[in-house]
């Protein structure tokens, strides 16, 4: 599902209609180019029980705008202008992950995994738990946490995380990883682990004892 600014170049959406470029279930809905309309559209989708990926596309000038959209339930936020080929690549990557029924980072083993510091990751409902306190994550937040939990105590580079979660090796101007890290820290704080996600200067991030 694409939530798009009406100002998007129609060539980008037409590009997705070419045979073999994207699955047939990709649907675009246009909303007014204001943050509150985008947030409202994403929230409305999630309230219906829609669980597939939601990609918001527009002109978002501030990181706070992108964070608000992610918090509303979007899985990705892309900035205009956007090359049609880049949009196609993002949509295909998203659909590949959904089509497998299991994310790239989910192991084939037990449905739960607990890191050495007690944070439990549950695949069945994409949630994290600590000492009985549980909070749900979005699909992308969960994939990032899966990398963190499986490498607990070791620093994970930004490049590695971008590759594992999104299949890319560098960020665009959206600075998307920082937005997700901010959101994860907020959710970790909600379960009693406000300091669990550390920034390792010059390297990346690590999940350590709270």
Fill in the keyword field for this structure.
210 residues; alpha/beta; four-stranded parallel sheet; elongated
Explain briefly what this protein structure is:
The protein has helices spanning 10-16, 35-47, 63-72, 84-99, 139-150, 158-166, 176-190; strands at 2-4, 28-30, 55-58, 76-79, 112-114, 120-122, 127-130, 133-136, 156-157, 197-200, 204-207. It is of the alpha/beta class and 210 residues long.
Describe the structure.
The chain is of the alpha/beta class and 210 residues long. 39% of the residues lie in helices and 18% in strands. It contains seven helices and eleven strands. Helix 1 (10-16) crosses helix 4 (84-99) and helix 5 (139-150) crosses helix 7. The N and C termini lie far apart (37 Å). 30% of the residues are buried. Mean pLDDT is 75; it is low at 100-110.
